[in-house]
Structures are given as structure tokens and as C-alpha cells.
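Researcher: Next entry: Xylanolytic transcriptional activator regulatory domain-containing protein (Exophiala aquamarina CBS 119918).
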Amino acid sequence: MGTDALATVTSNPVDDGLVYGGSSTIAFVRSFTHGASELIQQPDSRTSKGNAGHLKTDRPVSAQPLPIMERDPASYLLPPRRSANDYVQCFWEYIHPLFPVLHKTSFMEKYSHLWSAEEGRDRDGDVSDVNENIFASTLNLVFAIGCQFSASVPAQNKVALAEDFYQRSRKIFVYDIFDSTSVSLVQMLLVSGVYLQSTRYASRCWNVIGLAIRTAQSLGLHLDVAKYRPENQLNKEMARRIWHTCLVLDKSVALSPM
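Model: Predicted structure:
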């Protein structure tokens, strides 16, 4: 897969057409580079056939995003377990039925591991480290939303506490969000959008939901083509839920005053 200033171009032109459509910028770039390649590959009368060249459109893309800022250890601190459990339960009770973007069983398994003494947090920056950052960031967003529905938090403290969890979430994900593409990242962006739609960050909410939609499209979550749907039934169902949430939030924000 290669990238340029306009779009991302995969090595398979069929994939581009299915995911982005024939009228997309990527389709235009694909047709242009294909035509240019044919011209360049034709033998030049001034050179031998063995020297015929070809247009190289692909540039290497790092599969592992690089950190763009230092870790903030304080952002990884968890609230007291009783409070944390309360916030998470409020999220499942009040938000999850409307925006079922997270898989509860998988999420709660990871959540339980956080309280285990064997769970380490200092890794070497491998792929699992990125996933752990995404989960920790998502968890703080869940705290930010859930604490606003918690009866244990005084009404006058809810906004400030939610804002604190939101800022922690932003500090935890230390990678460039534009270099990351995964289902878990889409989930994090959507949960962030759910939180932001009830805050003063109206434009930020609009932007983060738009980014979630673009990332979901790049993963093919908007398609029912069998090729882009995982064979696992759970993954199929989560793909549908995630894309459904993308559409619901996009329509909701579009109807809200900026």
C-alpha cells in the first residue's frame, strides 16, 4: 500500500473500487498511475528493451505508529475500584443501549486485568502496546461518560470530573492518530464523540466523528461484501454495530447547532 498527498493507494485496484467507489480521488489516482505505467513500460527507441522502466507509485508505510509525545504516568492512574466499577456500570446501563459500539464481555475482561497485580504497563512499543493505549484511553472516556450518571458523584462535581477523565484519555494515546487504523481506534473515536456531544466542544465532536467514519471506511466496515467481513460471527456483528453507531452519531451531530 502506498500514500500520496491526495489519498491512500493500495496494491489491489479492485480493493480501491470496492471500498472507496469509482468516483473517489483514489480511483482517479489509480487510473492516472495505471495509464502512466503503461506509457513508461513501452520500450523507448533510444534504449534497449532490457532498460524499460516502470512507474513506482508505492512508498513504504510503517505498520507501527510512532509516539509523538512523552507518556504521562499520572494519566494511567485509576480511580478507586468501587468508583470505577460504578462509572463503568453506569456506562453499560445508560449509554451502551443507545450506542453499542463496545463489546461488553471483551471490554470487561480487559478491565478486570487492570486490577491484577501481574498486569504490566511498561512495554517496548510493540503492537500490543498501541492496543493497550487505545483501551486505556477508551476506558477513561467510559469513566468520563459514566461518572455523569453516577449517584455517588455530587452534581456540582460531575462536569469537572468528566473533563479530567477526558483529558487523561487524550494524554494516554501518545501516537499520531492519523498513522493508526484499527477497529479499536474507531471504537475509541466514537466513544469520544459520545462524550463530546454533551460538552462545549461542539466542533471537536464533529471532527472526531468524521475521523471515525473515515477510519471505518478505510477498514471496509461500511460494506456488506463478504471479502471485507471477518468470518468470525462476533466480528461481523461488531462491524455492523460500529458502522451503525457512525451513522447515528453523524446524523445526530448534523442536526445539532454548532
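Model: Note for the record: The two ends are 37 Å apart (CA to CA).
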